[in-house]
Q: What sequence folds into this?
C-alpha cells in the first residue's frame, strides 16, 4: 500500500491550531471593520499574466503555474494585491474612491520551506484603492499597528521609500555616466531588499559604477533612525550645486512626503516606527512609501518579517485607469507562531441513551429520546450523542476521553418519567431532572465553576 504524504511546504491544521487561527482571524477582522474596511475575496487561481506583468522576477521564479484543460495559462496566487486590483478594475471602476478593502486568503510560493516559510501560507491584508497620500499611507501603517496591538504581538515598524531610492540610483547613474534599464534598476532594488551587498557591488561594478557611487548607494540604504531624513536630504542635494532642489526636486518632494507620514503617525496616531531608507521590498510594483514590520520574538528565526506593504500603481496594467493605492499584508502563519493563545476549554455535553439490555423497539425509543433531548441542549451547549450503539460505560468512557463536563443519561425509567439523569462528570454527582431543569442546572454549575 502506498502511504500518501503531505506535499512539501504545506501543513495540516489540527483542531487546537484551528481554534487559534480562527481566534486570530476574528480579532484581525474586527479591527479592520472598525476602521471602515470591508472584506473581499478573489479566486485562488488567476491568469498567470496578472502576476507576470509587474510583480517582479522573484515572484515569477516562485510561482505555481499550470495550463488547465482548456489551455489557459494559470497561476495559483502568490499574493493578493494584484487580484484585488484586478477585481477593482473588473467590477468597481466607477465606485466612489477611496475604497477600503481587507482580505484573508491562502497564497502559494515555490520557496525553500523552512521554519515560518511555507509553500502554502495565508495573508491577511488591507488595501486603500484610490489614494497614496501621506494620509492614506499613515492610515495603512497605523491600522497594521493596531491589528498587532489587538493580537498582543510586539513588532517594530520600519518605513522607507522606494521612490527616493530609485531617484538616488538615477542620480548616481547620471553622475557616473551609466545607463540602467528598468530590469537592471529592479534587480538592484531586489538585491537591496535581500541585503546582498556583495552582489550589488559586483553588479554595479560590472555596469561601470565607480567605488564612490557604490559607497554612496550603501550610505543611502544604511540611513536609519531619527536623522535619516536629514542625511538623505544632504545626499540627494550633494553635487547639485547651490540649488539642489531644482534638479532633485522630485526626490526632495518624496522626502517631504515621508516626513509628513512620520508626523501623522507620531502626532496623530501615536504609532511608533523607525525610518529606514534601506527598505526596498521584494515586489516591483511599489512606487512610493514602503514599510515592513519585524516581530520581536526570537521564535521565528530568520523569518521575522511579519508584514510588508506600501504604495503602488498597477490598475493601469489590467485595463483600468492609473490608480494610486496603498496597502499591506500580514504573514498570518508567522503571526500564528507567536500569537499568545490558550484555547478555552469548551463545555461539552454528551447525551447517553442506556441501550444495554433494551429490546429493539425500546432501543429505537431511547435513541429517538436522546436525539430529541440533544436537539434542545444544542441550542445552549456543544452536545454530542453516540453513533456506535455502545453501552453505558463505553459511552461514559468516551465522554471522559473527549473532555465532556456533563452526561445526560436516558434509560428506560427516565423515558417513562419524561425526565433525564444529569451527571456532572467532574464531581460524579447526579440527579433526576426535566430537560428544562437540566439546561438550567448545567448553566448554574458552569457559572459557579467559573466564579
Ligand atoms: P510580501 O512581503 O511578499 O508582500 O508578503 C507579505 C507577508 O507575507 C510577508 O511579510 C511575510 O510575513 C508573509 N510571507 C511571504 N512569503 C511567505 C511564505 N513563503 N511563508 C510564510 N509567510 C510568508 C505582499 O505579498 C504584498 N502583496 C503586500 C502588499 C499589500 N503590498 C501592498 N498591499
A:
Amino acid at each position: 500500500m502506498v502511504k500518501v504524504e503531505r506535499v512539501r511546504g504545506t501543513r495540516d491544521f489540527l483542531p487546537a491550531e484551528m481554534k487559534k487561527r480562527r481566534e486570530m482571524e476574528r480579532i484581525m477582522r474586527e479591527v479592520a471593520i472598525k476602521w471602515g474596511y470591508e472584506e473581499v475575496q478573489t479566486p485562488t487561481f488567476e491568469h498567470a499574466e496578472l502576476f507576470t506583468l509587474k510583480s517582479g522576477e522573484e515572484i515569477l521564479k516562485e510561482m505555481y503555474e499550470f495550463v488547465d484543460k482548456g489551455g489557459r495559462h494559470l497561476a495559483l496566487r502568490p499574493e493578493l494585491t494584484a487580484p484585488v486590483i484586478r477585481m477593482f478594475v473588473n467590477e468597481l471602476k466607477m465606485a466612489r474612491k477611496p475604497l477600503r478593502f481587507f482580505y484573508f486568503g491562502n497564497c502559494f510560493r515555490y520557496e525553500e520551506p523552512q521554519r515560518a516559510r511555507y509553500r502554502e501560507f495565508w495573508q491577511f491584508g488591507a488595501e486603500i484603492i484610490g489614494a497614496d497620500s501621506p494620509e492614506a499611507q499613515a492610515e495603512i501603517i497605523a491600522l497594521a499597528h493596531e491589528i498587532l496591538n489587538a493580537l498582543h504581538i510586539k513588532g517594530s515598524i520600519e518605513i522607507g521609500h522606494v521612490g527616493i531610492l530609485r531617484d538616488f540610483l538615477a542620480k548616481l547613474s547620471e553622475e557616473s555616466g551609466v545607463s540602467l534599464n528598468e530590469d537592471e534598476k529592479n534587480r538592484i532594488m531586489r538585491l537591496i531588499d535581500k541585503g546582498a551587498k556583495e552582489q550589488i557591488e559586483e553588479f554595479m561594478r560590472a555596469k561601470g559604477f565607480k567605488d564612490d557611487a557604490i559607497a554612496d548607494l550603501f550610505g543611502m540604504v544604511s540611513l536609519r533612525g531619527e536623522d535619516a531624513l536629514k542625511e538623505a536630504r544632504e545626499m540627494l542635494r550633494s553635487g547639485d550645486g547651490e540649488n539642489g532642489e531644482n534638479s532633485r526636486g522630485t526626490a526632495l518632494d518624496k522626502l517631504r512626503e515621508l516626513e509628513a507620514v512620520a508626523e501623522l503617525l507620531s502626532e496623530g496616531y501615536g504609532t511608533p516606527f523607525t525610518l529606514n531608507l534601506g527598505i526596498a521590498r521584494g515586489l516591483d510594483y511599489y512606487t512610493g512609501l514602503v514599510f515592513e514590520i519585524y516581530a520581536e520574538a526570537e521564535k521565528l528565526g530568520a523569518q521575522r518579517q511579519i508584514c510588508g506593504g506600501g504604495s503602488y500603481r498597477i490598475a493601469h496594467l489590467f485595463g483600468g485607469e492609473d490608480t494610486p493605492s496603498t496597502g499591506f499584508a500580514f504573514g498570518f502563519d508567522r503571526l500564528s507562531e507567536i500569537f499568545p493563545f490558550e484555547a478555552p476549554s469548551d463545555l461539552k455535553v454528551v447525551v447517553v441513551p442506556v441501550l444495554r439490555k433494551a429490546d429493539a423497539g425500546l432501543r429505537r425509543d431511547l435513541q429517538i429520546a436522546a436525539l430529541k433531548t440533544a436537539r434542545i441542549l444544542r441550542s445552549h451547549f456543544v452536545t454530542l450523542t453516540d453513533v456506535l450503539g455502545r453501552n453505558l460505560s463505553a459511552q461514559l468512557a468516551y465522554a471522559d476521553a473527549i473532555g465532556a463536563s456533563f452526561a445526560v443519561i436516558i434509560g428506560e425509567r427516565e423515558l417513562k418519567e419524561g425526565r433525564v439523569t444529569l451527571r456532572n462528570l467532574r464531581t460524579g454527582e447526579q440527579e433526576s431532572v426535566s430537560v428544562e431543569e437540566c439546561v438550567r442546572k448545567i448553566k448554574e454549575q458552569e457559572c459557579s465553576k467559573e466564579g
Remarks:
- Confidence is low (pLDDT under 50) at residues 241-247.
- The first strand starts at residue 38 and ends at 39.
